[in-house]
Please model this.
Amino acid sequence: MALSVSAAYIPPANTSLTPSEQKLVAQPLTDAAKDALANAAPAAVYHPSGSASAPLEPLEVVDTWVGRTQSRDFPRRAEIFNGAFSTLKASYKSFESALSATAPDLAGKKYGFTVEADGRLKVLDSASQLSRSDTQRLTDLLNRSLGLKSAAIAYRNAAIDTVDADSVWSGLGFYSLTNENFAKTLDLAPLLTDHDPSDIKGAKDRTFIQQLQYKGERATQATEAAMYERRGVQRFSTQA
Model:
């Protein structure tokens, strides 16, 4: 758009307003106008809602459990756990070798075992191959093997220590592992037995973390508090 600018001054059309001589006089309402004003209805009616006059609800306090972080002691506990596993595996191999020589009928059957709260080894008929007599014989033999029994207890204790020292939300601390629920959570035999990698049957039982994931008890604020109380007695800290 082009603008044309001129130096010539053009005065405005009106520079001032001339006052009018007419005076304003109020006129009385007619009877019709008075009747219309008296009968006029409001343009809108406000109806307040019930919540507008109701008192505010009291605030509800929500107690959120965050859970512990990983302890500085975790790497040492994990190292002890790995060492306990190596010792347990060697003891189990020795037991299996002795079992083949002394009770070949039992050595040919598949079984599991775990550690009860009192430290005794318990036989698990994981493949339904054991009779009552077989179970009793294996139980006696396992508990008479002092090397295997002590190694299994040491492994259980190291596993619990490692879980307690780890984080709740990003590690093993998501689970609660105790002397009381260990037997319901871990079958030690699949962890110690050599398997063909192509054999996927029972694969979920072959590692500690997999058994913990599908059989373990989930940690809660209550189980964490109980763990801290137990650890306080044992003089072991899980604080980061």
